[in-house]
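User: Earlier you gave me the apo prediction for this protein. Now I'd like the version with zinc ion bound, so I can compare the two side by side. Same sequence as before, with the ligand SMILES added.
Assistant: Got it. Here's the input I'm using:
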Amino acid sequence: MDTDLLEPGSTHVDRERKLHHANARKHGPSPMLNLLVNSLPGIEVRISNVHGLGVFALCDLPAGAFIGHYEGQRFSEAQANRISWDNRLTYLFGLSDGTILDGARGGNATRHLNHACDPNCEAVEERDGSGKIVLRIETMRPIAAGGELSIDYALTVDDEASPADYMCSCGSARCRGTMLAGASSN
Ligand SMILES: C[S@@+](CC[C@H](N)C(=O)[O-])C[C@H]1O[C@@H](n2cnc3c(N)ncnc32)[C@H](O)[C@@H]1O
Ligand SMILES: [Zn+2]
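And here is the structure of the complex with zinc ion:
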């Protein structure tokens, strides 16, 4: 997969394809799981009905709550293009300046956010003290304890990519059937 827009100005890049599902299942429901992947307060990572692992609220969360920054090793676009991402589950998030965060390296629980067509969270770009773009994950509306957190991947992909590779199973009444960007996304 390739580049995809979440919020105006912030892009989510995901280059994994069919191997994603197989790899996600390998995580299994280990009791150690949350210790390993739940690095942020207020949320937990566990098996999702949507896909593999997902992020869930541990308590009622209000609208506008800060969940955490999307962390990961930072690559330039050129560096990312030299890496083969096809053989494993990837956690790539592209920023508006062309850099890419790889949540698989140095990432936190936010890398397990699944896509929803009617999401309850959004990724917002901001600058840190050194001027670097960072991504805040925030709730868009209140989320009850136990609810799954989601963002709209709004993927944009190469022309030759097949929409069948990006089918959505978010289950929302407003599901557009694909994780690709909707007509109103920019
Ligand atoms: C960064 S992973 C999301 C976290 C993942 N569930 C895990 O186990 O870590 C992104 C991948 O999850 C899958 N995914 C996320 N949301 C989905 C949805 N609504 N429908 C189908 N697959 C989804 C897709 O394969 C997507 O490329
Ligand atoms: Zn959907």
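For your comparison, keep in mind: Residues 14, 16, 20, 24, 48, 50-54, 91, 111-112, 114-116, 168-170, 179 surround S-adenosylmethionine (ligand 1) (CB under 6 Å).
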